[in-house]
Each structure stands twice: as structure tokens, then as C-alpha cells.
Amino acid sequence: VQLVESGGGLVQSGGSLKLSCAASGSALNSYHMTWYRQAPGKGRELVAAITSDGGSTNYADSVKGRFTISRDYAKNMVYLQMNSLKPEDTAVYYCRTLDLRLSSWGQGTQVTVSS
Hints:
The chain is an all-beta fold. About 0% of the residues lie in helices and about 50% in strands. A hairpin with a 6-residue loop joins strand 5 and strand 6 (about 55-60).
């Protein structure tokens, strides 16, 4: 599955952004999906996950209560709503299938939070 992320940008601390993930040439609806991020000089971190039926979600402790992962079956999209953003949320954000064998790292979308 080829995935394309969008929606990043520059936002002030406390602001919000909504990231989108679209699939190129494939349906996302049957996959468990995740969002990862990679901050400058750090490894990739799993931020959020959602099951294929949308019935279960999980979040990293660092974003719990601020980020929400969701999916739109009609649009074949996965989203990450990010609220109360902090400078430490600055990173490149990637969406992936939960099973990493089924997708590859795309270009990601840059999120920069200024203090």
C-alpha cells in the first residue's frame, strides 16, 4: 500500500492541526492503521493506532488526551486530529499500516510547533 500524508504546517503552541492519510491505488479500509512521528535527531515513535473497524484506538502517553486518530470509510482516509500542540510535537508525521510489511515509509508531513 502506498500512503500519502498531508496537512502538516507551522502552528503556535496550543494550536491544532489535522493530518490526513490517503492510499494510492489501494483501499485502507481493511487495514489496521497507525501514525508515527520522527523528531529531529530522534527515532521514529508510534503515536496512534486504529483498528480496521475503527472500534479500538491506542495512543502514546505523550499524546493521550490531545490527539485523536480516526478514519472515514467513504473517503478511504485516515486522520490524526492534533490539539493543544506543544513544541515537542514538532516532527515529521507518517501514516503506516500496523503491519509494516504491508506499506512503506512515505515522505511524511512536517509539523512544526512554535513556542
